[in-house]
Specification:
Layout lengths: L2 H7 L11 E8 L5 H4 L4 E2 L4 E5 L7 E5 L5 E7 L7 E5 L7 H17 L9 E6 L8 E6 L2 E6 L3 H5 L17 E2 L6 E7 L10 E3 L3
Parallel strand pairs: 1-4, 9-11
Antiparallel strand pairs: 1-3, 2-6, 4-5, 5-6, 7-8, 8-9, 10-11, 11-12
Length: 205
């Protein structure tokens, strides 16, 4: 990707403090849409021509080919060599309900695979692009859950105030807080310095 194109991708808003479903539209260079039409979930930086509208890192953007044909919607990060990771091929809103549905699908698949079972309580609940949730990996180890994020948008959308689906990851473990009567689920975030994520405690809502 040329220096000029890299500059065109950076929105005047910089880095968003909270992910949002933006009206930004990423336009591909001519001839670069073919892998996306055939199902590839990543958009590489050298395939991007420009950003129409405004979108900050972590926002949701639409993706179109050079002629304006809609391809999908995904998480945007202009500073990455993969500036768009597709979440859906439909022109639909990306909100809490969207993520709840994806998480339910991931759990349903593990249930069909008999996970967990008497032989093991350790398994991967969410496998990033494999479950339609790029940049998010969730591993279950008995009564604990480990979350790894490798895409800018997840620390943004993962705030308790904005995402109410988090306890659905693994609701089996609950502990009583000494200060509150409501149970809390403790989830360990793997620290990724550039995302600014250390660890989080998710509470039911």
């Amino acid at each position: 990707m040329s220096r000029r194109r890299a500059t065109n991708l950076v929105s005047s808003e910089g880095v968003s403090g909270q992910a949002r479903d933006s009206s930004g539209r990423v336009v591909l260079c001519r001839g670069k849409a073919r892998p996306l039409w055939f199902g590839h979930p990543w958009v590489y930086a050298n395939a991007v021509d420009r950003l129409d509208g405004e979108a900050a890192a972590g926002d949701i953007v639409s993706l179109v080919d050079h002629d304006g044909h809609f391809i999908g919607r995904g998480i945007f990060n202009p500073r990455s060599q993969i500036p768009v990771r597709l979440l859906t091929r439909k022109d639909e809103a990306i909100d809490a309900a969207f993520f709840v549905a994806r998480l339910r699908e991931a759990r349903a698949l593990r249930t069909r695979l008999s996970l967990p079972n008497p032989d093991t309580t350790a398994y991967r609940l969410v496998n990033s692009e494999g479950d339609g949730l790029p940049g998010l990996v969730v591993d279950v180890f008995g009564d604990a859950t480990a979350v790894q994020v490798t895409t800018w948008g997840w620390p943004c959308v993962g705030k308790p105030s904005s995402m109410r689906w988090k306890p659905r990851f693994h609701p089996a473990r609950s502990t009583r807080s000494r200060r509150a009567a409501t149970p809390t689920w403790r989830v360990l975030w793997r620290r990724i310095a550039w995302c600014g994520v250390r660890r989080a405690t998710w509470c039911p809502v």
